[in-house]
Amino acid sequence: MLNMKHSLLPALFLIILFSSCDQINAMLESEPENKNLSKVYHKNGKLKAEIPIDDDKKRHGVSKQYYESGKLKTEINYNHGTKEKATQYYENGNKQMEFLYKDGKKHGKRNKYWTNGKLHSVLEYHEGDPKIGLVEYNEQGEKITNYPELVIKHIDNLESTGRYTVQVYFSRNMSRGKYYSGKLKNGVFDNTYIQLKKSSNKGILSYRPSPGTFIMKKVNVIGRYKTPYGNPYIVQKQFNVAIDY
């Protein structure tokens, strides 16, 4: 009788072993490993991000980020590593921002929203660069119209110092402004413009002509103002410079 019990033990062990293996295999089959989806978790164990990738390890598909609460924070559409569209959300579920891309650069209208769901601002981009035509709204949905003016001031000190100066500045909150020499191409502000030197938060164009010099020309300047809502308000102005020294 004792021998029979001992002879049954190995068979019983094998049954338990194979049964456990079957359970493990079943679990693995129910949650197969996806080599094309990377996941990151918050310290609280909730999902922080899920990033789909292609076979070349480039982001491909809809990449998502989540708040610690588990609510969706960001969605970005990728096409084999290149951004195509992005949408950001507040934790209450309302959209915060949405914009499109072209060749990985912002291109087209970028919409921002207030936490209450109302439109915050609309700004158009061209291949990564902002354009003129910013439209902003307050939280009540009222359109913002009181932007500062771009001021041009001529200072003729030729007789005393031999210098003719043109000051360029915004009519208020001058420290929010930057000023450039040039003319916008199709309303697009790119990185090719030369920023003017500033004095007391004013852009400066300075001329020191030789005696007997006559200058008559048109000058175009660009002002870029950071609004209280954090958007770039872009405006340009043309004026005449007439120097007879």
Describe this structure in words.
This protein is mainly β and 245 residues long. It has 2 domains: 100 residues, Outer Surface Protein A, domain 3, CATH 3.90.930; 95 residues, Immunoglobulin-like (Sandwich), CATH 2.60.40. The chain is built from 2 helices and 19 strands. The strands form 3 sheets. Strands 1, 2, 3, 4, 5, 6, 7, 8, 9, 10 and 11 form an 11-stranded antiparallel sheet that branches. The radius of gyration is 32 Å and the shape is elongated. The N and C termini lie far apart (126 Å).
Can you describe this structure in just a few lines?
By secondary structure, the protein is mostly beta strands. 13% of the residues lie in helices and 49% in strands.
Output the structural class: mainly beta
Measured by DSSP, the beta-strand proportion falls in: over 45%
Secondary-structure element order, N to C: HEEEEEEEEEEEEHEEEEEEE
Straight-line N-to-C gap: 126 Å
For the sheet with most strands, the description reads: 11 strands, antiparallel
CATH class of the largest domain: Alpha Beta
How would you describe the shape?
elongated
- The value of Rg in angstroms is 32 Å
Q: Averaged pLDDT, please? A: 88
Oligomeric state of this protein? single chain
Under the CATH scheme, the architecture of the largest domain is Alpha-Beta Complex
* The CATH topology of the largest domain: Outer Surface Protein A, domain 3
> What is the share of helical residues?
10-25%
